[in-house]
Amino acid sequence: MNACIYPGSFDPITNGHIDIICRARNIFPKVYVGVLNNTAKRNLFSVEERVEMIRRATGGMDGVEAVSFEGLLVDLMERLSCRIIIRGLRTGADLELEQQLSVINRQLLPGAETVALLAKPETYFISSSAVRELIEFHADISGYVPREVADMINGGIKNENL
User: Fold this and answer.
1) d(CA 86, CA 28)
2) 129 labeled binding residue
3) What is the pLDDT of residue 155?
4) What are the catalytic residues?
């Protein structure tokens, strides 16, 4: 097990996401953070901005690489020679969804496994959607996102969308 992938939209990346990345990196020597470019979904930040946020927030972490992708996660996993999916779980609803996705991913890519990491009590309530709402109302997001991400957002990234 050389590498794992932690997929998501990360719109924006939060302290909860960073916690999962750090913990995954303690288990695996290489962690790909897969930023989904879902054109059917209206994101606050472009895929390039989200990748840059992740790069800045994980800049001091060896073995962490942000990559963008479209389409199926298993296609990216094949390109990266990766068979392990990391998922952070906050609630029972997250568990149910991830169980279903795990079965589908194994059917599409034999040998694919999902490793679930439980959110810590201090971050389980943080979600990207809640942070987006705080951004929309110009509220302080510094307690919910890495400093580098707050600096990017407060520095004017995508202010025209707010």
Assistant:
1) 10
2) yes
3) 83
4) 17, 41, 90, 128
